[in-house]
Amino acid sequence: MSGLKSDKRTILEPLTGYIHSNVLDFSTIPGERKAQLKEIAEYISGKVREREPVNLMFICTHNSRRSQMSQLWAQVAVLHYRIPGIRCFSGGTEATAIHPAAVTALTKAGFQIESDGIGSNPVYRFTYANGIEPVELFSKKFSDQVNPQGGFLAIMTCPDADEACPIVPGAAARFSIPYEDPKVADNTPKEALRYDERCQQIATEMFYLFGKVKERNESIHYV
Asked: Tag placement on the chain: N or C end, fewer CB within 10 Å?
């Protein structure tokens, strides 16, 4: 029965195409970066081996670009590798709004996206797989009530948030993998290119990270 249940959870075809065309070449990840990702993978693997639930919190300053992309791609990678018990969240040190260029980059990658279009901080619904409810995202602080309040793994995705939060309240552990902010190209001819590059980099690194988790837990599958 567990196999039938797993088979119903299939990543959307456009996303699958993007993954196989743009994401699985791990040779693009520098060695030092791989070491950082392996350290996070080892921590997660220990929890998975013990059948403990794992809540990941990706944190940047505004929760508008890098942390949102990280949350989504991590969740896709978790499904791709069929790793149980992992849930992904994101937040900022302050709330703003998800940047439209980030939404566009994720749409081009293959996510199906809807928005309520309400107010200055609209809610987006990101669909990445059949048989799974869409992920609802909006910009929020990491302490927002929709996020876990304790026992989570904090992953800092920007240097500003990393510096501002040397200690993340409620976090069981904290790691830092800062990404260059595509914001530097906002309102320039290279805006779309920079957002696409960051989307691809984050996707590639999330798949590398969870591929390592899978390697360390080959006998564990969805139930």
From this structure: N
Whole-prediction pTM: 0.93
Residue 22 has pLDDT above 50, yes or no: yes
Write out pLDDT tens, residues 40-76: 999 999 999 999 999 999 999 999 999 999 999 999 9
pLDDT of residue 161: 80
Q: Which domains does the chain have, with CATH numbers?
A: 2-216 (3.40.50.2300)
Residues forming a β-bridge with 83: none
HEC readout, the chain: CHHHHHHCCEECHHHHHHHHHHCCCHHHCCHHHHHHHHHHHHHHHHHHHCCCCEEEEEEECCCCCHHHHHHHHHHHHHHHCCCCCEEEEEEECCCCCCCHHHHHHHHHHCCEEEECCCCCCCCEEEECEECCCCEEECCCECCCCCCCCCCEEEEECCHHHHHHCCCCCCEEEEEECCCCCHHHHCCCCCHHHHHHHHHHHHHHHHHHHHHHHHHHCCCCCCC
